[in-house]
Amino acid sequence: MSDSPFKLHKNANEKEGGALYRRQLLKLASILPVTGVIGPVYARNSVSKHSDVGAESPLQDPWLSLDAVQNHLFPASESGLSAKQFKALDYLQSKFERPLADHEEQQFLFQGVGWLNDLSISDYRRRFAALDYAEKEALLQKIVKSRAGENWLSLIIDNLIEALVTDPVYSGNPDGAGWKSVGQIPGFPRPQAQDRYYELGYQKRQRLYRQNDEKRLTKG
Amino acid sequence: MSAHTPEFDVCVIGSGAGGGPVAFRLAQAGYQVLVLEKGPWLKEEHFFKDELSCCRHSIFTPDLADEQHVLETRNEYGNWYSEATSQSGWNFWNGNMVGGSSNLMSGFFYRLKPQDFRLKSEFGAIEGANIEDWPISYDDLEPYYTLVESEVGVSGHAVAHAFAEPRSTKDFPQKPTAEHPIVKRIESACDALGYQPLPTPRAILSSPDKGRRSCEYSGFCGSYGCASGAKGSSRAALLDRAVESGKCHIWDNCKVNRLISGADGKVVEAEFVNAEEQVQRVSAKIFVVACQAVETSRLLLASVGPKHLKGLGNNHDQVGKNLLFSAGGAGSGDLPYADLDPESVKALQTRGPFVNRNLQEWYVIDDEALGGRVKGGTIDFLLRHPNALPQALPQKWDDDGNLLWGETLQKRIKSAISGQQTLNFEVFNDWLPTDNCFVSLDTSVKDRWNQPVAKVRLGYHEHDLKIGNYLADKAAGVLQQMGAKNINWSVSGSPPANLMAGGCRFGTDIETSVLDPDCRMHDCENLYVTDGSFMPTGGSVTYTWTIYANAFRVADKIIAAL
């Protein structure tokens, strides 16, 4: 695909800007062609929170590719935990299920999976998750040279870091393993399930406003 | 509702450090008080050390799509350029909830000094700055500073030094809070340089008092709500007790759109939007506005009436003018653990106790390099904020702006979070009032309820930077003496939104001030302003203790007027 946004070289002077720039990028992402992965809503089919340990159902895309990318970006090493070890995929999946979730961001991540696999298939005749380490690295080094690719990877890394060091109540950082691995000493008291940000203060009010706005719209 | 029989004696709009003392004192005196607070009523049981709710998806501030500001800054061509914060990503809210942003402060508490009340007569006029002496003196405010020590709860230890302000009591009612081992290193460095480090008073209880627990030293204080009640927020220290008296009623989630005044110019009612987004009104004998400087000016400007055609108290175009922030800047230096012995590392890794050290060596500077005797400021030392995300996220870029991942990134994150202890300093000096720092109403951007939002012009005086740089250089010298690495600092004219005052300065002349010396509006006899808006100049310290003290002072004036 000659017009894949992961193939367009970025202007060397471009860097991530403010909120407006990011919105423009997301808008761009929403109108560019994508193959392989289509549709805004995906079933969550990773390990269920209630399933027996080890009873892992095979992942499907986009999660399969995102999981592969996450674990390539954060491998198990002497310096840190792998994405799998700090439950980065669980964090990402639950993030998009939270009230007030940023579905534009989700859409961009999913579309990027499509672009990634398009490129993977054209270069290696296999999807990203099936590549070996060196092939994955080469492909990511290739897409990071495009503006869309750099932004897509940057967003994945932001979410990896969030999964690593935010409170376990948000599904990453199991039992504080992420904190321990980077030497972060958490504060106290820590939130429980009913105390997550979207249950409190202005975030809770935001949910109410959205309901009010929807009611107004349906009334015409 | 009839405007002829007011429902409340006093209606206080805003519940932070400016509103709390008034509600508390008036309720204590037996008056019926209503507090209207636009934010939610969050209490100790809602405050967790959760970085996502504090700082990434703030539960404490409105969504910018609903309520925002328009900020005006000078562009590279020297022209003023306006941008709404929902577009720029700059958030100008501090903390909107019962108790206001005093819930989120670090509680570095300083009194102003006698010279701060007479900046113009003490140091002279400065070209391009609208400096005026205060209409009251330090002696007028001193008893109220002392009252705040016991009522809000200030811990500290008074020591004699060159610029120590006079005290009517020997020492603080609360002993200092526990101190971090890094303090010894700061003191050694200051000793070597011949400086006198001073204990920083904190609005944090070191022992339980008046039903509040003492500090539990979680290490996460500034930007977070306090779960123990030790932090002297207006809510924990004053409003909880006011409500207990049965005389004070707090209506949270009620945002006042405007104050309605009658033909005689007096305020009759406050019009507000409640939690269900219905517009309602409430009447009172006396109204007190304390919404923090920018929003107080916005509310007054939006409240036009028969005698106030340009907004309440704005017949002389003074409302919103001479807005102040705190000038200065900040810096930091690292003490890498790789350079230290295991025992030192263990000590420096301590999480919880405070630094509580400041320098006021240069509160007044007499140096030819600055052209002789000038007003200086305060240097405050503190540990780097313990939040992980601001440390970890920037590590994804290398020095050339390339994205990193893999073990390189993992190493960098670990090193940034736990490879060293970082000591920060903050510099506070006067933000000189100028014609280029003021609040007005934006003509196009509206809030969720179709009210004009505040537009803030953010100009500064070059003199602010000169003093700020002088002090930051001294502070960096202390870090250098400590053997810190990666020392860097910046002083700029970019205003810290959490340190604002002015906009309704008090004085004796209606032509040049909005409020009289009692903080009552010159031309509206039943309206008072009790947040930091009253300050003609801000001094070279954080403002909260002064705002609390003045609000207690004005509460006495209101009681006398009732």
TrEMBL record, chain A:
List the Pfam families hit by this protein, alphabetically.
Answer: Gluconate_2-dh3 (PF13618)
This protein's name: Gluconate 2-dehydrogenase subunit 3 family protein
The record lists the lineage as:
Bacteria, Pseudomonadati, Pseudomonadota, Gammaproteobacteria, Thiotrichales
Automatic annotation (TrEMBL), chain B:
Q: Name one Pfam family in it.
A: GMC_oxred_N
Which residue numbers delimit the Glucose-methanol-choline oxidoreductase N-terminal domain? 92-323
List the PANTHER family: LONG-CHAIN-ALCOHOL OXIDASE
Specify the protein name: GMC family oxidoreductase
Glucose-methanol-choline oxidoreductase C-terminal domain residues are 433-551
GO molecular function ontology, one term from the record: flavin adenine dinucleotide binding
Family recorded in the similarity comment: Belongs to the GMC oxidoreductase family.
InterPro entries registered for this protein in UniProt = FAD/NAD-bd_sf, GMC_OxRdtase_N, GMC_OxRtase_C
Q: Which organism is it from?
A: Thiomicrorhabdus xiamenensis
State the superkingdom: Bacteria
Q: Which UniProt keywords apply?
A: FAD, Flavoprotein, Oxidoreductase
